[in-house]
Amino acid sequence: MEFLQSKQMTLDGSYQFSLGLFENSQLQGVMLYEDALWESKMLQKKVMNVKLLAANSTGQLKQLFQALYSVRQMDETDFVFVRVPAEDIGAVHVIQQQPSSYFVGSLLKLVNTPSPYEKTPPFFELVQPEPGDTEEICQLASDAFAKSRYFHDPFLSREAANKIFQEWTRNNLSGRADINIAAKYNGEMIGYLQGLSKGDEYVLDLMAVKPGYEGKRVAFHLLAHLIEQPETLKHKTVTAGTQLHNVRAIRLYERMGFTAVQSYYNYHIWPGKKAK
């Protein structure tokens, strides 16, 4: 699309729906979005994700969101997820002005070039999970991701947010993830990591450590084990993401050679709700 090329923007993946803003037969703004089918099923709500948005001015971007509101209210959409680069102050301001728009956290993307680490052996085992480990691993996901956007939404319960990550973990164990690593100590599950291969990039998808074992290098050894896998070393980069206020995670990644490359702000927009 020429409009996106003119703004040096590319779309990662596909989309279902689009909104375009035209003035004098010229495209001035565009929004691409899709149904979030899995989230909708998990939350028992109609959820949509904005994949890309761009406009020539903040006023035109505001018109796009007004159109989105009208369409989604008629369609009885519960909420729309929007992620924007933190440096795009104009877009952030427009989204924050929308009725029933909620800031639900942030994302910091970090990258590293895979290479082996010097380290002492851990006090625990790093193993591939067995089928009988599934429920114990999924239980670790409960409250492990409390800094995520689902926990910051005033219209989503803690139970619903936990369900998202427990089922996300279960799907990864059932074959979605390219690698699953479990940390076990005396037969007890104390941590897990799940990763995905995406072209030249290996993505750390989910990682959790059992309460009481934080600060004991469990996360370090899980991540090092992932990075040192022969399959991972074939990739150009390893990518991780965490919230901007998750200082402990950011320090770990930086100590392991990761570099921050982009930060984002996350918003949930509820077209049919009155602002709390």
Automatic annotation (TrEMBL):
Domain of life: Bacteria
UniProt xrefs under Gene3D superfamilies: 3.40.630.30
Residue ranges annotated for the N-acetyltransferase domain, each copy included: 124-276
Pfam families in the record: Acetyltransf_1
PROSITE patterns: GNAT
Protein's name in the database: Spore coat polysaccharide biosynthesis protein SpsD, TDP-glycosamine N-acetyltransferase
